[in-house]
Amino acid sequence: xxxxxxxxxxxxxxxxxxxxxxxxxxxxxxxxxxxxxxxxxxxxxxxxxxxxxxxxxxxxxxxxxxxxxxxxxxxxxxxxxxxxxxxxxxxxxxxxxxxxxxxxxxxxxxxxxxxxxxxxxxxxxxxxxxxxxxxxxxxxxxxxxxxxxxxxxxxxxxxxxxxxxxxxxxxxxxxxxxxxxxxxxxxxxxxxxxxxxxxxxxxxxxxxxxxxxxxxxxxxxxxxxxxxxxxxxxxxxx
Length: 238
Ligand code: MLT
Hints:
The protein has 238 residues and is α/β, with parallel strands linked by helices. It has one domain (2-225): ComB-like (putative 2-phosphosulfolactate phosphatase), CATH 3.90.1560. The protein has helices at 29-38, 50-60, 104-109, 125-135, 152-165, 175-187, 191-195, 199-206, 210-216, and strands at 2-5, 20-24, 44-46, 63-68, 71-72, 97-100, 116-120, 139-143, 227-230, 233-236. Helix 4 crosses helix 5 (152-165) and helix 5 packs across helix 6. D-malate binds next to loops.
């Protein structure tokens, strides 16, 4: 069965035990983490607070990335743009990363009771679908949302994943998944046009980060990357 939790604030309504949790923050935390691992970052520490991000950076000698309210937080190597990991002037290969973002890293930390925790984005949709299929367990897609509220792009990703898992998984016994599937079917023919209407895209546009938006919608650009939680970090299990 595939179910979708629209916001981390609703996680208390779900039992994560025995399930695969797919953490989604299309704009931009999950897309950025996938890009980082795809570009050779060895592992990622997703942390809740800025202080922890700094502390991990010092303790592990890793790169630090932090964002609050869509803007890079002061005092860190990087913000939350995937392009930060594609800049030849700052090679990231072989480095570890600690990252803290407004909603995405929080959603992940709240989902650790699941049997397996992976990070999903359009960039690695195939890797997530393959992993979930191989696990054969119930799935909960955990949308990071925005400050507790529903986000269109995260939900549309849930629909895309449900579509890939059809017919092997039951995607019809949850209204949340059904709704996400319908949104995906509506948006798929022109995803970028469809998601242009979403609140976070307007937020990113106003922060001049609209190129990040186009980047994050590339389906399967990192089809071999599967960030998976192991002990205290995300590693590429792809
Ligand atoms: C978040 O975690 O809230 C974000 O990924 C926001 C962003 O950087 O666009």
